[in-house]
Specification:
By secondary structure, the chain is an alpha/beta fold. Helices cover 37% and strands 18% of the residues. The chain folds into two domains: 140 residues, HAD superfamily/HAD-like (Rossmann fold, 3-Layer(aba) Sandwich); 52 residues. The protein is globular.
Amino acid sequence: MTKKLFIFDFDGTLVNTFYDSVIAYNKALEQHGREIYHYDKLEDLEFDDFIENMTRDEGILETYGEIYINSNMEYTKPYPGIMEVLETLDNNPDVELAICSNRIQNLLDMLTERLFSNINFKYVIGYNEGGYFKPNPEMMNQILDHENYSRDEIVYIGDRGTDIKTAKNSNLDLILVTWGQGNSEAYNDSYPLKVIDNPKQLLNL
């Protein structure tokens, strides 16, 4: 295995948070007197639009976080096969793991502890008020500035076009996964090192 540092996006890559996130966001919109998303099925919602709208208003974002963290998170769980792959990587003494996510830091910390308490992530980097969201490289630099790995020894794993831009801005190799909220445009982009359909393929890097 030539890669030594695996940096994971969270939502749509490690964990399916989409359903519970939309439910909580609609409740936050209602509390702020805003129009909620109307849809027959959650799959009909354009995920990039959802993320952009959620992160545009700090007040709604804070309310969303409070609602989400106090919900039962019925649908929030790791994707099939993710836990086994993380355990295998974590047991490799030559590999280190990290998370870099646009999710609010306190929510990210809580979810990581709840879902991956047995996995040793060296870094868990999320969004803090006043900072920048990916694809700005600021959050990624909080990891890279403290490591001596060459760029060839680091890989970023994500699921969407935003992750492609993040990898480009940070000069990192990217593995794009198809089980999250990506689309054909992202999967056909020339930048990713690989596009994978099964988490076990990460063990061949």
